[in-house]
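Encode chain A's predicted structure.
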Amino acid sequence: MPRGYSFGRAEEATHPDSVRATLSEFLSTLIFVFAGEGSVLAIDKMYKDTALGASSLVVIALAHTLALFAAVASSMNVSGGHINPAVTFGALVGGRVSLIRAIYYWIAQLLGAVVASLLLRLATDGMRPVGFSVAAGVGGWNALLMEIVMTFGLVYTVYATAIDPKRGSLGTIAPLAIAFIVGANVLVGGPFEGASMNPARAFGPALVGWRWKNHWIYWLGPFVGAAVAGVVYEFGVIQAEIPHHTHHQPLAPEDY
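Encoded structure for chain A:
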């Protein structure tokens, strides 16, 4: 019997817990995008005429890893630490979050990314956010597949360390594991298409910097990868471990 899905309780829209969780997602996404996109602008500012190559990539990957660790850790006990519309979608596909809560999170995440990008533009005296782009010689479908695979790995890790009811003490290292897989994926996908894995991370800089070329890749890829990961882990791992006679509990309060 699959886990039940929920549109959300009527009072959830104005419940204090929903407001706190939404605010947490907004602030944590702002922190992550400010540091992540800021690292890209810093590299451009410091080494504009120098081809650092791998060194630049490592710096950017490290910045994303550290920022995401802090963002997830600071919001996990309030909102679940999604910081990513794709992660929220994966949780929605698996029945781990209500539709109302998911919509709140998506709005908060996108707004957080936009505000972070605006603050960066002001703080850097008008530097235009870079966002993500497909490298020369890389096809759009190749970039899409890269985003799908990388986001699958991210959301699968989120499920295994932060969502799985049997995670036990593993949950304490969830922010670190999630940050590590993002950093590793930046090292892999960065040279090809930037390695977004996060529609909010792509949307904020794209809007403020007005860079929309191939932007669809950074929405479709993460959402497809997240959905596949949610289905595989929820129904292939979690549900497969539950005896057929066991009744499923309703969504936990933090899932709403």
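The mean pLDDT is 89.
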